[in-house]
Amino acid sequence: MKMLWELPEDIQKIIVEGRLCKNGDLIGEMSTPHSMIYTFKGGDVNYVIAKGIKIEESMSLADRHALFSQALYEVNNAHVVCHHPTVQRFFDVDVISGVPFLLSRKRDITLRDFICEGPVPESEALSISIQIIHGLNYCANKGLLCHQDLKPENIFLDYISKHFAVGDDHPIKMRSFVADFELANAYLVLRRPYGSRPYMAPEQYEKFQGEGSLDFSRVDPGLFMRAS
Known about the structure:
Elements: H1 9-20, E1 25-31, E2 35-41, E3 47-53, H2 61-80, E4 90-96, E5 99-105, E6 109-110, H3 111-116, H4 122-141, E7 155-159, H5 160-163, E8 174-178, H6 186-190, H7 202-206, H8 221-227
Antiparallel strand pairs: 1-2, 2-3, 3-5, 4-5, 6-7, 7-8
Helix pairs in contact: 4-8
């Protein structure tokens, strides 16, 4: 039996869609240098994201093993912190023709999009910041000290009114989720900062001694300032 990466892209899509159709209709797909990402729609507010490793047939066996090791590292990181309400979690892992896919629920919006919609009320900015800090503190207590890719695009938000029966006068509008843990602790393991940028405190980036307490990630006043 052929592996998924040995098949043409159109056949890959058919196989993935057939395997994951229980989550709804396939409505979107995209790829990054290392991932295949499919979006399924199962209801008005029920969207599922399936993220799989992107393997090229031309890759060497060593490169494939490296990608699978990275995927297992990501799964482990996500599993460690999957029980906190302000951390984006996966609900299932499905191996399709040799490729593992992480399944998680798609949230309504990213923090980047929310900020771009216009000024955020001070109470909402404080609420979002507090939720993020609670999530990061939980992760730090679980051993994930350096997220390394913490940015507005990796913080997801849900509109509470879309998912819960609350009135228009409810003081808090958004529920926050910290996401994308695939590079968490990579600096501690590989001794090199990764991610879109090395999102670490300057003293961690320039001179890390590995002693004492270490911030999981810096949630500086800029977060609140950008949101408000």
